[in-house]
Amino acid sequence: MKNKRIMTTALAILALSCSSVAPAADKEPIVDPQVEKEVRAAEKQRVEALLKGDGEVLKRLMADDFTYITHTGELRLKAHRLRDIQTKAIRYTFLSNDIVDLRIYGDTVLVHGFTRRKGEAPGRKLDGTYRFTRLWVKKDGRWQVVHTHLTKAPQE
After folding, report:
1. Phi then psi for 135, rounded to 5 degrees?
2. Which of 55, 38, 19, 21 is nearest to 108 (CA)?
3. DSSP reduced 3-state for 90
4. Per-residue pLDDT tens for 122-134?
5. Residue 138's closest CA among 67, 30, 65, 35?
């Protein structure tokens, strides 16, 4: 009985402490022109690095826990993505991003848009338009991408 009371108390404390640090679900994005400018610049650097196959720039822009869901549903980690770009297994001849929406939540920014790309990957050509969602987080004073998800855009 005493153990049950201790366990119940511990669970209640844990639940209360978790709820006090969780972000509010109804929190609205903020407007911050400087943050928007910084993230748009990071997006541009990312595109330029992908076109050049510049793994060093990409390494700085990607968080260590970076994940990427490809348009085919594959999960790629930072090491996979860097290897594919640096070894030229994936080469882009054209890459263009159109940002549709950029939402700022403090040190976290959610970017949604369309990307148009051409290039080559093992066994296939890259040619198409895709929707993307990218999550940027400010770590150690610089913006790093934590996650990207790509989905084939419907043809109009």
Report:
1. -110, 120
2. 38
3. coil
4. 999 999 999 999 9
5. 35
